[in-house]
Amino acid sequence: MATVYYEKDADPSRLEGKRIGVMGYGSQGHAHALNLRDNGVDVVVGLHAGSSSRARAEAAGLSVALPEEVAKASDVIMVLVPDTVQRGLYESAIEPHLDSSKTLMFAHGFNIHFKEITPPADVDVSMIAPKAPGHRMREVFTQGSGVPALVAIHQDASGEALPNALAYGAGVGSMRAGIVQTTFKEETETDLFGEQSVLCGGTAALVKAGFETLVEAGYQPEIAYFEVLHELKLIVDLMYEGGLKYMRYSVSDTAEFGDYTRGPVIVDDHVRAAMKQVLAQIQDGTFAREWIAENHEGGHRFKRLREQDAGHQIEEVGAQLREMMSFLKQH
User: Fold this and answer.
1) CB of 54 within 8 A of CB of 81?
2) How much is the pLDDT for 327?
3) How far apart are the first and last CA of the chain?
4) What is the CB-side half-sphere exposure of residue 209 using CA atoms within 13 A?
5) Parallel, antiparallel, or unpaired: how do β-strands 103-106 and 149-155 relate?
6) 75-84: string of b/e by CB count within 10 Å (b at 16+)?
7) Which of 21, 94, 163, 331 gives 70 a disulfide partner, CB atoms 3.0 to 4.6 angstroms apart?
8) How confident is the model at residue 224 (pLDDT cuts 50, 70, 90)?
9) Half-sphere exposure of 135 toward its Cβ, with a 13 Å CA cutoff?
10) CA 306 – CA 197 distance, rounded (Å)
C-alpha cells in the first residue's frame, strides 16, 4: 500500500521566514501562489516582462518580479511553467542562482526524469503534484478543504527534503486531503500513460470513432454527438464520485449489462497490447525524445495535428448544439 501523509504529518512552520518563488501564473501557478499567500507564506511570482499574466497576479495582490530576480531572492523555487519551456527557464533564470541553501520544486517530473534539467547535487529537488486542475485546487481550498497530491524526492541533499516538501503541501492545502508518496519516475510515467491511453488520447479517439460509426451508419450527427460525447460527462461524474461500482449502480440495468458484455469487445486484447506499447515508449524515453524534438523543431507536426482535429465534424456539430445549452455559458 502507498504511504499517505496527512495534516498531522506536516510541520507548516518550516515555511516560516522562507520566501517561495512560484515560476508561472497559469492553471497551477495561480492556485499555488494564492493558496500559499492565504496561508501566510511569503510568495513572489516569477514572470517575464511581457507576460500577459502579470496584471492578473498583481490584481490578486501578489508580488511579481522577473524570473531571475525571483530565483535569486527565494529559498524555495517552484517551477510551474509548461514542460516545454522549463529547460530554457531553468538555464537562463534559475540555474545561475541555485546553491545548497535553496530547494527546487516541481509539480510534474518530466524534465527531471528525462534529464532535460540536471540540478546541482547539493540542492534539494522535490515534487508536490496536486491531482486537480488549478482552478479546482483553488476552489476547494477557498471552501476550507484541499485536493489530494503526490510527493516525491529526487535529491535529498539536506536530509530534510521530505518534511520540507510536506510543509509546502500543507501550504497549498493538499495535506487537508492527503498526500501520497511516489517517485519522479512513477509520477512522470503514469501521468503520461494516463493522458495518452485513457484521459485524453484514448477518450478522444474512442469518442470520435463512436461518432463516426453512427454517422456512417446513417444516424443524425446531432444524435450521435449527444450519445457519445455530451453524455460522457454524466458517466465520468458518477465514476469520479463513487468509482465504477457507483456508476453501474446509477445507470439502467440495460446499460450495465451492455457495459459488462460489450465493453470488453471494444477494449480487447489488441487494445491492451497497444497500451503496453504506449507505456513501453514512455518508459524507454521514445515519447519524451519525440516531444522534445518536436518543440525544438518548431512544433509544426503538433500544430498540423491540432488544426486537423479541430476541423472534425464532431466539433462543428458540437459547437452548434452547445448554443442550445445556456447553462454552459455560466462557466
Assistant:
1) no
2) 79
3) 38
4) 8
5) unpaired
6) ebbbbbbebb
7) 21
8) very high
9) 1
10) 18
Each residue of 256-268: pLDDT tens digit? 999 999 999 999 9
pTM as predicted: 0.93
Residue 30 falls in the annotated catalytic set: no
Separation in Å, CA 101 to CA 11, 91, 105, 122, 229: 19, 18, 13, 9, 50
- Which DSSP symbol is given to 3? -
> What single letter denotes the amino acid at residue 130?
P
Give the separation between CA 164 and CA 153, rounded to whole angstroms.
10
Q: Is the dihedral of CA 85, 88, 89, 94 positive or negative?
A: positive
In whole numbers, what is the pLDDT of the chain averaged over residues?
Answer: 96
Inter-CA distances, 154 with 22, 123, 158, 166, 226, Å: 19, 10, 12, 14, 45
Q: 230: buried, middle or exposed (CB in 10 Å: 19+, 13-18, 0-12)? A: middle
pLDDT at residue 330 in the model: 56
Q: Is 133 helix (H, G, I), strand (E, B) or coil?
A: coil
The catalytic position among 30, 32, 108, 113 is 108
